[in-house]
Specification:
Elements lengths: L6 H13 L11 E2 L16 E7 L8 H16 L3 E7 L7 H9 L5 E5 L4 H10 L4 E5 L13 E6 L1 H15 L4 E6 L4 H17 L4 E6 L6 H13 L4 E5 L1 H14 L4 E6 L2 H7 L3 H5 L1 E7 L1 H13 L8 E4 L6 E3 L3 H6 L2 H15 L10
Parallel strand pairs: 2-3, 2-4, 4-5, 5-6, 6-12, 7-8, 7-9, 9-10, 10-11
Antiparallel strand pairs: 1-3, 11-13
Helix pairs in contact: 1-8, 2-11, 3-4, 5-6, 5-13, 7-8
Length: 363
C-alpha cells in the first residue's frame, strides 16, 4: 500500500476539514455508529434480517462513508419491522482491519456490507470462512473468476456516467478551452472517472484540451493546492478534483486565482458542503460535483434482499438510471451555466439512461 493515505482515508480527512471535526481516535476495536440498531452485536434473536455496514475508516466525511450510513438509517426507518442494522467503524490502522472484520463476521450477521479496493482480500476471507453470511461488496469490481463466491453481491457505481455530465459542464464553463482532471493515483476507478469526464467535455467541444494530472496523494492538501495552482496558471480554468483531502487544496487555489477559475467536486455535493460551512468563496468556485449516492444503493439492495431478488454471484452497476451517481446543480452552477446548457446536460443524462449515449469506461 502507498505511504500516502488511501482513497477512503481521504474521504474522512476531507469531511473533517469541511466540518471542522477533529480526528477520531483509531484503535483495534470497531465502534458502533449512531445510525445502528441498539441491538447490534451478537444475534439478538429478534427474527429480523440483520445487516451491518463495515467501514474501513470512520464516519464524518460528509460524503462517501456518511452517504452509506445515511442509507443504513433509511433502511432502519423503511424496513425496521423486518431489519435491524448497525454501522461499524474500523478506523485507519490497516493492521487491524483483517482481525476486526473477521470478529464482526463471527457475530452472525445475515448481511455484511463492505467495499473499496483495500478490502478485497478480507472480503474473500470472510466469504470463505462464513459461507452463510452474505456480503455486499461495493466500489470495486469483484472478479468472480478468480474469487468465486455465491454469497457475494458486487456493487459498482457508474462514475464514468456522472463524470460525463460534469465534463460537459466543464467544457461549457471554460473560457480558455483547457480543462483538467486531478486524480490521486491511476487506479481503475479513478481512470474511469477521467474517461467519462474527457468524453463529456469533447462531446461539447471536440477542440477542447482535456489534461489528466496525478497527485500521488489522497491526504496532502498542500500537494493538491500546488497541483491545482499549476494547472490554473497553465491555462486550465476548470479542474475536476478526485483526490480527497489532497483535493481540498484545489478549492483554495481557485479562490486565490479569482474569478473564472472553478473546481468540480466529487462523491458528495461539495458546493453545498462549503455553503453549509459558511465558506461562500469556495462554494462560488465549485462549478458542480459528481456525486456517488452510496446510501441509495444500500436502500435499494435492502428491498431486493427482503424480496429475495439479489443476484448473488454477480456484479451490478448503479448508474444514472438507479440514481447511483448524479450531477449537482447549485447556485454557482446556475450562475455559470445557461439554462440551455443545463438543459443539454439533462438531455445527455436521459440519453445515457436510454442507451443513446454509450460512455467510455475502464470496466
Amino acid at each position: 500500500m502507498s505511504t500516502n493515505m488511501n482513497r477512503r482515508q481521504f474521504l474522512y480527512a476531507s469531511g473533517a476539514a469541511l466540518a471542522g471535526l477533529g480526528l477520531v481516535a483509531c484503535g483495534g476495536s470497531p465502534s458502533s455508529s449512531e445510525g445502528g440498531s441498539s441491538d447490534a452485536g451478537a444475534d439478538s434473536g429478534s427474527g429480523k434480517k440483520r445487516i451491518v455496514y463495515v467501514i474501513n475508516g470512520t464516519l464524518g466525511d460528509k460524503s462517501f462513508f456518511d452517504s452509506g450510513n445515511d442509507g443504513m438509517k433509511e433502511i432502519e426507518s423503511k424496513y425496521g419491522d423486518k431489519v435491524e442494522t448497525d454501522t461499524r467503524e474500523m478506523g485507519y490502522d490497516t493492521s487491524v482491519w483483517e482481525s476486526t472484520a473477521l470478529d464482526i463476521a463471527s457475530e452472525g450477521w445475515d448481511v455484511m456490507i463492505l467495499g473499496t479496493f483495500d478490502m478485497v482480500d478480507y472480503a474473500d476471507e470472510i466469504a470463505t470462512q462464513f459461507p452463510d453470511t452474505k456480503l455486499w461488496f461495493f466500489d470495486e469490481a469483484w472478479d468472480f473468476d478468480a474469487k468465486p463466491h455465491d454469497n457475494i453481491y458486487g456493487i459498482l457505481f457508474a462514475q464514468n456516467q456522472g463524470s460525463y455530465l460534469v465534463g460537459m459542464a466543464a467544457a461549457y464553463a471554460s473560457k480558455t478551452k483547457k480543462v483538467a482532471f486531478m486524480g490521486g493515483m491511476e487506479n481503475k476507478v479513478l481512470q474511469d472517472f477521467f474517461a467519462g469526464y474527457k468524453q463529456g467535455a469533447l462531446a461539447v467541444d471536440p477542440s477542447i484540451e482535456v489534461q489528466d494530472d496525478w497527485t500521488q496523494s489522497f491526504s496532502d492538501s498542500t500537494i493538491g493546492h500546488d497541483h491545482a495552482k499549476a494547472l490554473f496558471q497553465s491555462g486550465y480554468d476548470v479542474v475536476f478534483s478526485c483526490c480527497s483531502a489532497c483535493g481540498l487544496g484545489a478549492f483554495d487555489a481557485a479562490v486565490e486565482m479569482g474569478d473564472g477559475y472553478y473546481v468540480i467536486g466529487v462523491d458528495g455535493d461539495q458546493g453545498a458542503y462549503w455553503e453549509a460551512q459558511n465558506e461562500p468563496e469556495k462554494a462560488a468556485h465549485t462549478l458542480t460535483s459528481m456525486m456517488k449516492n452510496v446510501g441509495n444503493t444500500f436502500v435499494y439492495a435492502a428491498g431486493e434482499e427482503l424480496d429475495g431478488k439479489i443476484p448473488y454471484g454477480t456484479v451490478e452497476t448503479y448508474g444514472l438510471d438507479k440514481d447511483g451517481v448524479g450531477f449537482a446543480v447549485t447556485d454557482a452552477t446556475k450562475a455559470v451555466l445557461t439554462e440551455e446548457q443545463l438543459a443539454a446536460i439533462d438531455q445527455a443524462k436521459q440519453d445515457i439512461v436510454d442507451g443513446k449515449i454509450t460512455v467510455d469506461t475502464m470496466f
